[in-house]
Structures are given as C-alpha cells and as structure tokens.
Amino acid sequence: MRAATVGATCHGSSSDAGAGSGAPVVALVGAPNVGKSTLFNALTGARVTMGNWPGTTVAVSRGTWRAGRELTLIDFPGAYSLDPLSPDEALTRGLVVDAPACERPEVTVAVVDASQLARGLYLVTQLREHDLRVVVALTMGDVATSRGITVDPALLAQELGAPVVTVDPRRQRGLDELARVVVDSAARDVPSPRLLAPHPSAAHPLSPHQFREGPTASQGVEDDALAREDERFATIDRAVTASITRDPSAARTLSDRVDRWVTAPVAGPLIFMGVMWLVFQVTTTVAAPLQAALGSVVSGPLTSTLRSAFGSVGLGGTWAEGLVVDGLVAGVGMVLTFAPLMALMFVLLALLEDSGYLARAAVVTDRLMRSIGLPGRAFLPLVVGFGCNVPAISATRILPTARERLLTSLLIPFTSCSARLTVYTLVASVFFGPWAGTVVFVMYLVSIGFVIGVGALLRTTLWRTFGADPLLMDLPAFHRPTLRLIAGVTWQRLSGFLRTASGIIVAAVTVVWLLQSIPAVGGLGFGEAPVADSVYGRLAQAVAPIFGPAGFATWQTVSALVVGFVAKEAVISSWAQTYAVADPAPGATGATGATGALGDQIVHAFNASSGGHPLPAVLAFLVFLLAYTPCVATLAAQRREIGVRWTAFGVGLQLVVAWLAAVVVFQVGRWWW
Amino acid sequence: MTTSAACSVLEAPLNIALTLVEAQGSPGLLRRLAALGIRRGHRLEVVLATAGGGRVVSLGDSRLALGRDLAAALMVQPR
C-alpha cells in the first residue's frame, strides 16, 4: 500500500528531494514535544522541503544534512511507539521497520527528552528489537538540569546497546558530535537486535485478562506480548536507574506552578479567553494598518508608475496595460497584503506552541469543544477565522491529526470574517436603521450556528468515529520560546504560503478583470463596455435566476457576490460599479440618505426582486454572503493545507448550504414581513 | 479511602503516591497508555483537577492531562 520508500529501493532509483539519489537516508523519529523538529531545522538549515508523504495525509519534512558527507534527513511526525495507533505512527513503522532491509534508512536517530527519559526509551527499546542502526539524541538537557536530573550518556549507551549523544539544537551544541556518530554508525554493520523473540505482533493488549487463569490460543499470544512488554519495561528501568542521578533538593519548578493556574477550573478558562482575545486583536487591529499600508503602496505609487510607463511607450489604456496593472499587479498586490497578517499569525502560533501553552489550552477547551463535537484545539483557528479566514486555515496546523485539520479547515469559511462585516454594516444600515447593530450581531450567531451545524453534519456522514478518543495528552514543560527558531519557522511557512497562494489569487483577479473587459455586444472595443454589457455582466444575468427562491435575483446583486468570491472587501465598490454610482463614503452608516446613491439602488433592487418582501430577502442575502464561499485567498490557503479535492468539496458544500439557508430564510421570513 | 481499597483516578486524593492497578479500555487505548507510561504496576500521583473535570497526573518525570471519562476508568491504590 505504500507509494514510496524512504530512500533507494532494492530495485532502482530513489525518491525526490533531499541530498540526491545517492545520499544515505537518516530517519529522525521520536515522541512529540521532544525538540525533534527543532533538531531537524538545526541540522538542515534552509535546505528543506515539507509536504505529505506520497499517498498519505501524513506531513513529513525532508532535508539535506551536511554531516561531513551529505545525508538526506527525514523528519517523521511524533510517535510515542512503533504501534500503529495513528496514521503518523503507522507511517513511521511502515517506512522504518516494516520495509525490506535495503529500503530502510541507513541510520535511525531517536530523539529522546532527557527530562522524561523513561518515556522516550519506550520507542528506543522497540527500535532495538529490529535490524536497525539506532543512535539516540538526548535533548532538553536544560529542563532536566532544572529538575535536578543528570543523565550519563555513556552509561545509557551501554544499557541500550546504541550510541547516545547529548544535543542542544536551540543553542547549536552537540550537532557535530551527532554528525560524527551517525556517519560512523552508517559505516558499521547493523547491530544485532536486543531481543531474539519472534517478530512482535501488532496486537498485544494490556488488559485485565492478565488476571484470569486458563489456557486459550489467544491467551498464549497475549502472554507473549505481555512478556515482551515486561521485558521492555525492565530494560527501561535498568537503563534509567543506571544512567540518571537526581538532586533531591531540586525545587518545584516554575512549570508546575504555572500549571496550577493555567489548567484550573476557573482561572484556566479566563486566562484562555485572555489569550484568545490577544490573538484576535493581533490578527485584526495590529495587522490591519500593515495590510492597508502595503495595499496603498501597490494601488497607489506602483500602479500609477506602471500606468505612466505604459503610457510613455504608447500602450496606455490598451489591454496590455489592463492585463498587467488590473490583472497581474492587482493580484500580486492582494497576495502581498496578506503577508503581514500571515507572518503575525505564524509568529503567534509558534509562540503558543513552543512555550507549551497550547497543550494547556487544549485541556481547558476540551470539554466544551467535545460537547459541540469539535476537536479541542480547533478553538484557536476558529477564533482567528472571525478576523480573517486566511491565517485561520494555516492555524489548523496545531491540530494533531489530519482528520481534525481537515474538518476544521472545512468549517473555518463559515466563520464570519471582518471583510464580510463591511457588507453587513452597509446593508443592515440601509434596511434596518436603528436595528442594524442587532442584525449584525445575529449574523455572528448564525455564523457560530453554521460551524456547529455543518460540523455535526460532516461528522455524522463522513467521520462517524470522530471524537471517540478520550483526552489523553502529554503536557510538555513550559519553555521560553527561542526567537531565532520562531523567526526561522515563520519565514519558512510564510514563503511557502506566498509561493502557493500567489498563483491562484493572481489568476482569479486576472480572470475577473478579463471577463469585465470583454464586451458582449458588438461594436464596442475591449474594455469599453459598461459592466452590464460585458461577458461578466452577461454571466451574472444568466446566473441570477437561481436566486429567485431566495428573493434577490437581481444581476447586480449576484454580480457583487461573484466579486466577493475574489475578495469580500471588494463587494461594495464593485456593487457601486454595476450601478455606475460612486462608492459610499467609508464608514457611512445610518439612514438611506447617508449611504447615498448606492443605498437607494440597493433598496430598489431588493424591493423588486423580492416581490414586496425586501427584509427577508435582505436577510437571505446576508446569510448567503456569510456562507457561500471563502475568498480566493482562503481557497489558496485551503488548497495548501487540505489539497485540491477537499477544497473543491468545501466550495460545493458551502454553495449548497448557503443557497438552502438563504432560500429557507426568505421563504419562511416572507410570511412575517 | 482505606489502605487496601482501589479507587479511580477521578476519586483519588491529590499528591499521594499511587500505583496503577487496572486500566479499562480498548486494546488501542491501553497500548497508547502504556507508551505514555501508564501501565499496571507503575507509580503515579494525581496532581491537579482541571477545568472540565479531568485530572493532571504526574508519572515520574512526565505529566499527562486526562479527560474525566478516562480518569474514571483508571483504578489506583495507594503505595
């Protein structure tokens, strides 16, 4: 079932990326939160590609490790053991252990947390039961020291039968020695496995059956498995006792004291809300001026410089200028304006994860999220989504499994972002006067309702076993985050986003511009037709009747929605364009008079299309706008995180949900208003 | 609780040295517990009661957060 192997196959050439097809492959394995990825980044620098292992949903990083000779280093997702209890662990087992000998990695580096030695050694003892070259890298020495724990690597190596190297990837210590030991190890024969027992079976329960008497066939298998477990733990105990010295006077650590507050029944949730508020503020209030500044540079000086450049070579006003300035540059400009927002989001995520707070937040939110059927850690991406969906999609990386990331990514577009708010405010103030604020608030409640409702729908149809796992989570020690590390990871993620998002966004902006410029009536040149007579306008007119049952089947309204697909912020100005009126003044609210000509046109349009029931039609329109599709930047982010097929599914799902909801709102609403 | 009676982690008092007596659950869950250091005969202490009704247990040098249902399914006894 595996689509690819770690390195050279027994029959031919190797897979892509890494140091090239001849280079030996080194696997990096270990539990989550032991500093494995930090070590990986320290060893490979910028020479990294990240992505899903072919044919799987498991994220794996590959890089080049210059360790004297060039090695391909593969960072496997965190695994506590070789038992395939999740797709992540199954992949590790499949590629490191179950592969035929010539397809296994040359050396397997097991990263072990020195401050939690016994736990980390579980995986190591399992690895040592197979024909593998194992090297142990001990991390978190500083945490161990602060708890009064000292580990002797030489004694530990003796007990395990594998070399042990102490490393500190944050401070770049011990890396050269690790390189030397790994290269050395690769040159030797594979050491004999620790146990000569038959290959461990995949099923060895540790159940109360062990208390019962009576021979049965399955009892024999269980006894074997239990005996192996006992032997494993005996080895671990011996190794720990031999190599660890403890300072009994070590004080209760800061970590413990903070935990007392951060997971407490009352203080915990309050602290959590405070942190979420901070995250929300940073991604809206702090990011907004940076985005606006970048946006105005692109739409101001850059655009006018380009236009005059085109003018000076006699191409002013031609399709070439339009393509470059209104298509490509506008598209690239939009991508760039997301850069500060995404950077801030990645920094925040890294801070929360690296410091260890995120695990505590997951504990605090677990019960509430479980009761509404969502994964515990989904809280953060959903909160961010109310500011902007784009960084929220990227924030789903903090969810531990692919299924949780997928479900959350599909639900994030139902969170009502701040761009949608601009449309709500305008429309609500035109139609509802003093009730506008209430209507907007109700839209947010509807948004939450969609998230919970669609979540339930997806779980009952697609993922029926979802959420069955109990909360069982490791709480890593609190760390002071390393800024250099965070900067490195942020740059990596940001450049990845910009690379993949720019294609889709630029394409979408260019296509809309093109459709609006191509006339649909004869006798008019390119770019000369008013919107109504362009191909774009004709398409909007053709599509508009679909919204008849929802009460807003005017082509101008529909056209605004199509533009909203590209960017929700553009809805209002594009709406104004279709009526050939001026944009309403920014921030204009209140009665019809204050919003001016556009407001009048909208009132007229809704009155006509709804057959005299404008208010339900307006509500239907707002509900549709809330749910129908994310903006193209969100789609780009989704494509990056969950792939093309699921993104397309999400679009389809949203269109259907939005249309049904809008129709229901209108048809039911018009009995009252 | 008396010196020989077992109770669940949920009912156990805080900061007392305990031994795990039995774990109830699916084979997959039990394997995961073992990998994290929760196994029959292993020593642990219940350290905190968390928001949502769960517990934080300390196992040697590690700490784990357990949900309420899971805490009710682990039986312990004082050492």
Features:
heterodimer; A: 673 residues; alpha/beta; 10 strands; B: 2 helices; 19% helix; globular
Topology:
The complex is a heterodimer of chains A (673) and B (79).
Chain A: E1 25-30, H1 36-44, E2 48-52, E3 59-67, E4 69-75, H2 87-97, E5 107-113, H3 117-127, E6 134-139, H4 141-146, E7 149-151, H5 153-160, E8 164-166, H6 175-187, H7 217-243, E9 244-246, H8 254-262, H9 267-312, H10 319-355, H11 357-371, H12 379-385, H13 389-395, H14 402-411, H15 418-432, H16 436-461, E10 472-474, H17 483-517, H18 535-543, H19 555-566, H20 571-578, H21 592-609, H22 614-627, H23 632-642, H24 644-669
Parallel strand pairs in A: 1-4, 1-5, 5-6, 6-8
Antiparallel strand pairs in A: 2-3, 3-4, 7-9
Helix pairs in contact in A: 3-7, 5-7, 9-10, 10-13, 10-17, 12-13, 13-23, 15-16, 15-21, 15-22, 16-22, 17-23, 18-19, 19-20, 21-22, 22-24, 23-24
Chain B: E1 7-8, E2 18-23, H1 27-35, E3 43-49, E4 55-59, E5 62-66, H2 68-73, E6 74-78
Antiparallel strand pairs in B: 1-6, 2-3, 2-6, 3-4, 4-5
Characterization of this structure:
The complex is a heterodimer of chains A (673) and B (79). Helices cover 58% and strands 8% of the residues of chain A. Chain A has 673 residues and is an alpha/beta fold. In chain A, strands 2-3-4-1-5-6-8 form a seven-stranded mixed β-sheet, sandwiched between helices. In chain A, strand 3 and strand 4 (69-75) form a beta hairpin. In chain A, helix 10 packs antiparallel against helix 17 (483-517). Chain A is elongated and about 85 Å long. The termini of chain A are far apart. In chain A, 45% of the residues are buried. Residues 11-17, 196-217 and 587-594 of chain A have low confidence and may be disordered. By secondary structure, chain B is of the alpha+beta class. Chain B has one domain (7-78): Ferrous iron transport protein A (FeoA) (SH3 type barrels), CATH 2.30.30. Chain B contains two helices and six strands; from the N terminus they run ββαβββαβ. Chain B has a six-stranded antiparallel β-sheet. Chain B starts with 6 loop residues before the first strand and ends with a strand. The model of chain B has no long low-confidence stretch (mean pLDDT 87). The chains are: A alpha/beta (673), B alpha+beta (79). Chains A and B meet through helix 3, helix 8, helix 11 and strand 10 of A and helix 1, strand 3, strand 5 and helix 2 of B. Strand 10 of chain A pairs antiparallel with strand 5 of chain B.
